[in-house]
Amino acid sequence: MPTVSEESGRRNLRMPNDDEMFAVVTDMLGGGRVRLQCNDGKERMGRIPGRMRFRTWINEGDVVLIEPWDWQDEKADIEWRYKGQDADQLRREGHID
Length: 97
Known about the structure:
The protein has helices at residues 50-53, 84-92, and strands at residues 3-4, 11-12, 21-30, 33-38, 43-47, 63-68, 75-81. By secondary structure, the protein is mostly beta strands. The strands form 2 sheets. The protein has a 5-stranded mixed beta barrel with strand order 3-4-5-7-6. Strand 6 (63-68) and strand 7 form a beta hairpin. The longest helix is centred in the last third of the chain and has 9 residues, at 84-92. The radius of gyration is 13 Å and the shape is globular. Seems to be required for maximal rate of protein biosynthesis. Enhances ribosome dissociation into subunits and stabilizes the binding of the initiator Met-tRNA(I) to 40 S ribosomal subunits. Residues 9-83 form the S1-like domain.
């Protein structure tokens, strides 16, 4: 759960590791799959893992944290979904377009 800094109102959010990046969901494909526009400029097919499938609803326009597959670069697993105000903070700070 993100914490809020008292003086600035900035929330401490989960940031990507070395093998993760930000992406925006552009299309829902069905079957736990989504189309993603990634921060590196590539378009990938994302997979919603079972641990998130029924607990976290993902919609078009959501900002997510993904981990591209090592063996197939055009696909990725979704690791985290940012809520609206968290996504707005990431945009303000210049992490995503």
